[in-house]
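Incident log, support desk, overnight shift.

02:14 A customer reports that sequence design results differ from what the structure should imply. Their input is reproduced verbatim below. On-call engineer (initials T.W.) acknowledged and began investigating.
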């Protein structure tokens, strides 16, 4: 080809690697385990190198200067994206809200703790239209402070400062959110293949919000919470109220917090729907290169000021949309409302009769008055009896409303950060809030060696000690840093009664460990974890190896008063592949559920592999079942699980109910039984590759090291005091 000729044709053969997301090397097998979710956010993807410590960078941050820069930004309208009424408070309240508001309690995923709004799919959700402009407005500040402030912290802080500038006394703010560097692969946002597909796809019965598919919280694909026009876009405030209640409960909010957030969230800013959404350019992820990551620009007219199109609803909720006041209540409860259509064709509620002087002014021309609006979710606060009563309470006591909103806003924007030990900065509230899962400080000065010896002599079996430690620690989920062994909540309701914790066995083991903890002045939490270490070391010794499992004292014991029982319900295990247990049969396969648990624990595929193999050998199955115990040395920490799983002298036969027999190839004699979880380590090509490492004749030493490392990682997952 002539080097100067235009490339009017394309070579029919692709050279090089798979460089687009259209296909992947595994897309031929859509039901294969997605092990990629265990290996995302590797240090290779972050640009700072393996020694980067965000907390250390935060110590260099001039917090007051940063806050002042944000205050200045709120009033510094930019020509390329002018501020409504000359103020960006509504913009940045929305950026922060829509970052934090994707959190759901069921699995702790979503939320603003990772800066994920920068990436697909969130950067291109229909509900996030123009949040891309907010991030570009923040860019000069991010550029100035560099690595001393993460995008995740900056976006949430911008919303908090917005409310401060509007006039709210905020409750506080904590730094400490670390950025991710590519889209999250583990979060299930729904099965729909199109934005804003009808809500019916998420419910067994759309008229019964409690039937929404778990772990979802938003009612439609691409929304943060509910459709502002009504259920499936059809206005009905009572039906919307039911969806709001369920959705906000799944975001960890009660009725009072929900009403406060709705009212306070709509006290500042406005909706945008003065145009035709069909004229907008593609969303940021789909936009061509000349848009430079900016989406939703009007291709047939102005995109800014009064001509923006976002939700399609058009108008402000209050007379003074840049001020914190009681204007939302005055407007909603001071008028009767009727359904209208916005210029973009969206359903909205407008007052039947309103004086011109009570209307908000145009965002660009203060000489023009515009009709205020309410969404269906706003109207729900008026027509639903419970929400109405709460609003009446707020109207009677504006200071109480402001405090309730400030606390709810703090909870909304910090709920996914985990315990207070992870909070950083001068504005962290002194008050311990129950949703933070507070834990008293533990002790470290006791005789660890003496306690360890007493545990070893207590008569508890390896399985007793290992299972109790594991069950205590396995509740940890890295999505919102909840659960884990610290606090020893396994001895409190509701955890002590969870079926997966084998309550009778648990009570028996605790009756031995609790007196020992008191005798040595240790916390029960430390004693449970130390007992697990003793069990692993005893199992290794039974296999002929002397090892020492690292142990760091300092865990505390939470009290019942420090435990919000209802909020721990989603942490109850309904499966545990590590202990070969399912509460009942599920549509999702046992191995997929184990993968989900593994990702929440922060483990890699090889860590999952080594832990399962070791725990099977030690005989730690739920209820003492023998599935997967491929050894005649049960209780010893051996590589027998891997050796016998990969041995071609055996054959594998399904016998129903998800169980299998491993038979001698020559005689047909049944040697062991197994579950799907056991056999996936031989059938999945990636997991088998790891299993073969430990099945090799030289696999024992790497197995023991890898097992101890992975075990310690789980036991210390919630020890944020060690990571500070």
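02:41 Re-run completed on a clean worker. Output:
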């Amino acid at each position: 080809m002539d080097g100067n000729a235009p490339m009017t044709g394309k070579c029919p053969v692709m050279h090089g690697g798979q460089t687009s997301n259209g296909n992947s090397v595994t897309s031929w097998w859509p039901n294969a385990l997605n092990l990629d979710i265990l290996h995302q956010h590797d240090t290779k993807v972050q640009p700072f190198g393996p020694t980067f410590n965000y907390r250390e960078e935060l110590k260099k941050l001039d917090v007051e200067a940063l806050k002042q820069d944000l205050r200045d930004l709120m009033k510094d309208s930019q020509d390329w994206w002018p501020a409504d009424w000359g103020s960006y408070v509504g913009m940045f309240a929305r950026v922060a809200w829509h970052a934090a508001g994707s959190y759901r309690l069921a699995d702790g995923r979503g939320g603003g703790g990772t800066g994920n709004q920068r990436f697909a799919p969130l950067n291109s959700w229909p509900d996030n239209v123009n949040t891309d402009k907010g991030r570009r407005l923040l860019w000069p500040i991010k550029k100035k402070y560099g690595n001393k402030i993460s995008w995740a912290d900056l976006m949430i802080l911008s919303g908090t400062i917005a409310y401060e500038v509007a006039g709210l006394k905020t409750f506080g703010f904590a730094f400490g959110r670390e950025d991710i560097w590519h889209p999250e692969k583990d979060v299930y946002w729904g099965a729909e293949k199109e934005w804003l597909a009808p809500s019916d796809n998420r419910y067994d019965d759309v008229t019964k919000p409690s039937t929404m598919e778990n772990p979802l919280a938003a009612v439609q694909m691409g929304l943060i919470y509910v459709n502002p026009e009504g259920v499936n876009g059809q206005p009905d405030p009572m039906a919307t109220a039911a969806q709001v209640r369920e959705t906000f409960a799944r975001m960890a909010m009660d009725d009072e917090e929900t009403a406060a957030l709705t009212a306070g969230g709509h006290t500042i800013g406005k909706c945008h729907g003065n145009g035709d959404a069909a004229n907008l350019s593609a969303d940021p992820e789909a936009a061509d290169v000349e848009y430079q990551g900016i989406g939703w620009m009007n291709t047939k007219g102005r995109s800014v000021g009064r001509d923006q199109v976002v939700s399609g609803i058009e108008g402000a909720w209050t007379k003074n949309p840049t001020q914190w006041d009681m204007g939302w209540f005055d407007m909603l409860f001071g008028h009767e409302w009727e359904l209208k259509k916005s210029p973009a064709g969206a359903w909205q509620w407008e007052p039947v009769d309103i004086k011109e002087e009570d209307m908000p002014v145009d965002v660009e021309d203060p000489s023009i008055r515009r009709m205020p609006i309410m969404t269906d979710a706003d109207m729900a606060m008026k027509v639903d009896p419970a929400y109405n009563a709460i609003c009446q309470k707020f109207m009677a006591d504006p200071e109480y409303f402001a405090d309730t909103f400030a606390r709810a806003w703090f909870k909304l924007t910090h709920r996914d950060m985990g315990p207070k030990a992870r909070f950083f900065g001068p504005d962290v509230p002194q008050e311990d809030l129950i949703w933070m899962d507070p834990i008293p400080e533990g002790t470290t000065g006791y005789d660890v060696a003496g306690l360890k010896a007493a545990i070893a002599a207590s008569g508890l079996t390896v399985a007793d000690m290992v299972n109790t430690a594991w069950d205590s620690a396995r509740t940890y989920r890295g999505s919102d840093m909840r659960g884990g062994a610290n606090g020893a909540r396994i001895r409190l309701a509701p955890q002590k009664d969870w079926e997966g914790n084998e309550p009778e066995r648990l009570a028996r083991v605790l009756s031995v460990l609790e007196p020992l903890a008191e005798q040595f002045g240790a916390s029960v939490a430390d004693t449970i974890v130390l007992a697990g270490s003793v069990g692993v070391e005893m199992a290794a010794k039974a296999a002929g190896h002397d090892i020492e499992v690292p142990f760091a004292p300092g865990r505390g014991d939470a009290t019942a008063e420090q435990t919000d029982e209802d909020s721990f319900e989603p942490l109850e295990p309904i499966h545990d592949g590590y202990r070969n247990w399912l509460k009942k049969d599920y549509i999702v396969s046992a191995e997929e559920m184990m993968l989900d648990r593994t990702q929440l624990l922060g483990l890699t595929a090889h860590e999952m592999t080594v832990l399962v193999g070791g725990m099977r050998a030690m005989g730690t199955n739920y209820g003492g079942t023998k599935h997967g115990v491929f050894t005649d040395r049960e209780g010893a920490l051996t590589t027998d699980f891997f050796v016998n799983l990969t041995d071609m002298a055996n054959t594998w036969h399904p016998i129903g109910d998800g169980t299998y027999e491993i038979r001698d190839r020559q005689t047909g004699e049944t040697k062991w039984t197994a579950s799907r979880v056991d056999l996936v380590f031989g059938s999945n090509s990636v997991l088998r590759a790891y299993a073969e490492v430990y099945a090799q004749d030289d696999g024992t030493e790497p197995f023991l090291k890898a097992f101890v490392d992975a075990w310690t990682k789980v036991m210390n997952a919630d020890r944020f005091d060690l990571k500070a």
